[in-house]
Amino acid sequence: MTIRSLLPGRIGFGTAPLGNMFRAIPDDEAAATVQAAWDQGIRYFDTAPLYGAGLAEIRLGEVLAQQPRDEFVLSTKVGRVILDEVEDPASRELGEKGALFEHGRPNKIVNDYSADATLRSVEDSLKRLRTDRLDIVWVHDVAQDFYGDEWVNVYESARTGAFRALTRLKDEGVIKAWGLGVNKVEPLEMTLDLDEPQPDAFLLAGRYTLLDHERALQRLLPAAAAQDVDIVVGGPYSSGILAGGSHFEYAEAPAAVIDKVGRIKALADESGIGIKAAALQFVLAHPAVAAAIPGATRPSRIAEDLGALAQDVPYAFWKALRDQKIIARDAPVPTS
Description:
Radius of gyration: 19 Å
């Protein structure tokens, strides 16, 4: 099955920022942001144990526990088990994302993609989220950005552990769908080539955006579409640089990226549209993409995202992006 029948809309809510990514967010601000998403009709919420060592799940659960469970879709991730013992969050080994959640909870994070750890992770997430079930479960970060040269070994442990455990949970009706949630295309291409049960969808962050889409466009998205494996796009604003922020790939943006964003913004200004509208609508124009899940830490951002989705973007804008070689010539764009 594809997950389009599960997803309640084309926009969901990504909760990585609620794990105190980049900064410590007050609890009331986090709660107000989730509430704003709910009040404005968002019904798909994505989270993960990694986000602040369980903090994002806890914060999300506190708000969603007040709502009827049948009225929203919930996804979280496996591959990290959160322990009661503590560690220094700033000294965690998170590959290229070193200090990403240094403001999160100090609970120790253990990487483990075995079947047993997968089941434990699901149980722990249910408690933190204060819910009795998960709809979608993603296998988190089995890729180069977290594991360097060891990533293929980590992927293999997930293939024989988490993949099979989640396939069982789906067969038993415990979850409705599963897939991989990563920031790189290679693990997804490898998965599509496997001669064994395929996941239902992929959550791909940062690799299909206005700033970085060539690689995914060539092979991954056509292959996924051919196998009915839907793509949910995470990070449609490239860590914030396409939404007025300064981060790209979870770090301060380099000069070349800032320059490219400046060119996109100038064309958007000429067309009388916001750069968020360009970023979000570009991502959703690809037929393989089922939904996008921008993150937010302020209630006002939700209205901005929904407004960006509704904005009328003239075709001349997309043509200008193509002519200036900012987007690939064969990248799908909105037709109206």
